[in-house]
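Quick illustration for those who missed Monday's session on complexes.
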Amino acid sequence: MQARKPLIAGNWKMFKTQQEAVETAKRLVALAGKVTECDIMIAPPFTALSRVHEIIGPSAIGLGAQNFFWEPEGPFTGEISAAMLVSTGCRYVIIGHSERRQLFGETDQTVNQKLAAAFKNGLIPVFCIGESETERDAGNTFSVLDKQLKMGLKKLPLKTYSSLVIAYEPIWAIGTGKTATTDQAQQVHHFLRSLLADNWGNSLANSTRILYGGSVKSTNIKELMGMPDIDGALVGGASLDADDFNAIIHFFK
Ligand code: PGA
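Prediction with 2-phosphoglycolic acid bound:
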């Protein structure tokens, strides 16, 4: 059933100067640059994208960005466009991470505009959704995710799209050391895949990779990957050190 190639994605967040990013990328290429069993993506900060691309260029590691603005160009001081990301060598972009939603005012509408712009520019979006602890405790996990998914993907030309990546990241599990149990994660992933099938058809549901994110490490990757609807991981803290990140990738080798 799992014909989807797993993706292990590293989100470096606001860590690493250019030099530090280069060092980590070099080490990662040495450790995992030839892996074919899973796709690998790293998302350094904007300032390191070009340098990291020079290093990972021909290897198995793909470059991603952590954010961008949906307009093609214009007077938007401090913003970066999709075409600018593509020009640095990016193939992926993380969209709607909970830190952006919580700290920088991103909404389902802005996430939808970013997804549309990513599609238009040929970037593979890693579209993040997830419930807070309060929402889970109130029994609203599924309604929250239903809304985030449907509003995020609203009016997008998805029928024949095969490169969508969704990352389910329960907010209470990010950077906290708490992980959802594998059963909790599988239940949500299955729910999301059913939503995709019901709204956009089986082809999209079967080709979309749904990653789990939130305190993923080498010690829990095996259990997570044992679940039929978990297609990889979006890794924060454990992606900052090349050896730690490679230990997660190692599960697939
Ligand atoms: P974490 O972060 O692995 O440090 O929990 C995950 C994320 O925010 O994508």
